Amino acid sequence: MAEPSDWAELRAQRLTEPGAAEAYEAARIAFELGRTIRGMREQRGWSQAVLADAASMTQSAVARFEAGGTVPSLPVLERLANALDADLVVQVRPRVA
């Protein structure tokens, strides 16, 4: 097999491997959730430590979550939403073809 010549080629090759597409999608979701929580926290002028205290978490757990390093459970998302005085909305919708 020839070596990939650039990042796009390597990514395309890796996404054909078993389980890769699912792992990539989970990482995308984790990143987007973390970015959303970070934005809400920053809008309030809170540090990660303040959010962690309000959500009964550690600052390092908040940091990992905001960086997209962990896929949180629903109870963790609920604690973060409550700490930020926000609603947690989870939906499953049919795909539009």
TrEMBL record:
InterPro entries referenced in this protein's UniProt entry, alphabetically: Cro/C1-type_HTH, Lambda_DNA-bd_dom_sf
One Pfam family cited in the UniProt record for this chain: HTH_31
Tree of life domain: Bacteria
UniProt domain HTH cro/C1-type: residue ranges: 37-91
Protein name: Multiprotein-bridging factor 1 family protein
Organism lineage: Bacteria, Bacillati, Actinomycetota, Actinomycetes, Mycobacteriales
